Amino acid sequence: MRAFFYSRPDTLAAVVRAPPHSRYLAGGTSLIDLMKVDVERPEHVINIKALSLDAIEPLPDGGLRLGALTTNARTAAHPLVRTNYPILASALLAGASARIRHVATNGGNINQRTRCHYFYDTNAACNKRAPGTGCTARGTRNRVHAILGTSADCIAAFPSDMCVVLAMLDATINLYGPQGARRVHARDYHRLPGGTPWLETVLRPGELVLSIDLPPISFGSHYTYLKIRDLNVLALAVVSVAVGLEMDGDVIRHGRVALGGVASRPWYVPEVEGMLCGRRPSRSLFRDVADRLMQGAEVDRGNAAKRTLAPRVIQHALWQAATASPQPDGNLPVWSCSD
Ligand code: SF4
């Protein structure tokens, strides 16, 4: 690890006066790992944990505000999250280990970087880590990589479980920076790689996440977060699906689906809401929804199985939501297909 300057300011104004080549430190579960392997090389590390950004509080419109410094574990256990947004609790509990969830923060979860193994290997070409050097993952060992939203320059999958649910819920992220405060939809927060894979979010220099606003929405029991992974603990999604349905008897009044593990960012297709609206659950409807979500998928040498697996997981998740049978927390299916 390289030497760096360290500070721990206690006001927002002081934090956003960060000099160039700075990184904000909260839980540190991602940043410190990346500094140890020389992928992140900040000259200044600014610890933001003295800021009062760890509240979870109801909003006047009936929604809920999650502080950026609230840990993932505390968020998942909060009574208002468990009662009003159980799908968010499910996604948080499906991510990482209990030990990491007790340290990792909501702001850090949103800003975590890819787990592409070549990104961590400083001997490998990687456009995300070293712009213009190439993409080692293309045409090589890439079974965990993305098949949607990729580019010639990068096929890394976005790793967060929480962000898949934030995209499905249409949450809003509150930011603060040298130019003041602004709000960004969670669905617009992460960029597609295109020709600039090193630009992963819409964060401007010096900005940080203050909080996340969840809209007032309830799916009753008609939701699920279904995650397929390689191991029963500490594994990223091979495919994950967040579904929320508002039912009127046996008719879907409003439905949303978001995907994780298969795309360069949380994958949301607004057109799917129109496909589900006013329809009764059926095999043909759910197959059409899965086909629409997978439209444009491009496989590479090692990840073709995701193209086959994902539509099946999407349809299964839709039936779980339609029948009010959410995937039990901590009981996630394991995928046994080998490389
Ligand atoms: Fe780097 Fe992206 Fe290629 Fe992985 S997929 S090696 S992160 S450019």
UniProtKB/TrEMBL annotation:
Q: Which Pfam families match?
A: CO_deh_flav_C, FAD_binding_5
InterPro entries, per this entry? CO_DH_flav_C, CO_DH_flav_C_dom_sf, Diverse_Substr_Oxidored, FAD-bd_PCMH, FAD-bd_PCMH-like_sf, FAD-bd_PCMH_sub1, FAD-bd_PCMH_sub2, Mopterin_DH_FAD-bd
Give one GO molecular function term. Answer: FAD binding
Instruction: Show which residues constitute the signal peptide.
Output: none
- Asked if the Swiss-Prot or TrEMBL record annotates the protein with the keyword Cell division, the reply is no
Assigned keywords, A-Z: FAD, Flavoprotein, Oxidoreductase
Q: Where is the FAD-binding PCMH-type domain?
A: 1-219
Q: What is its EC number?
A: 1.3.7.9
- PANTHER family cross-referenced by the UniProt entry: OXIDOREDUCTASE, XANTHINE DEHYDROGENASE SUBUNIT C-RELATED
**This protein's name:** 4-hydroxybenzoyl-CoA reductase subunit beta
Which organism was this protein described from? Komagataeibacter europaeus (Gluconacetobacter europaeus)
